[in-house]
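User: Can you help me understand a structure? I only have the sequence.
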Amino acid sequence: MSKVFTEYEKTINEVSKLKEADEQSLVTPIKKNAWSIREIIGHMYYWDDYNLHNMVSQMHHGVNLPAFPDHDAQNEEAIQSLEGQSVYQIIDLFIERREEFLDAARKVDKQDRFTIGDGKRAFSAESFVKIFVKHDAHHLKQIENFLAAH
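Assistant: Let's start by predicting it. Here is the structure, written out as tokens:
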């Protein structure tokens, strides 16, 4: 079992624990002009969803995957897509999508290497996921710090 996939999977437990938190603290911005925990989880869900539907299915040897979308536009879309969903529904969506993404990524041949957009660097499914492990760690730290202070 890949350490990277295991790390990515650990986020499910971290996010799952948020179901025990008070709803008000999950919908309050973590600082002035920042997202709430609800929006952070939604943002992570949206990237998993994007990667599941647009990247993993194309991860074959020698393939050039599409460039990542503009991050700001993608993040804006993510937040808009959450309209009308409770924080607890978003947590459930995140867990479900993360499991689907991991299941698909683990099926990619370990030897397959591919590039992304104009990039020259060859990625494996594992090194691709590693990008998002770091991304998750950043957001989990933000969440942890906010909840510790409240």
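Now, to help you interpret it: The chain is about 65% helix and 5% strand. Residues 55 and 90 are 22 Å apart (CA to CA). Let me know which part you'd like to focus on.
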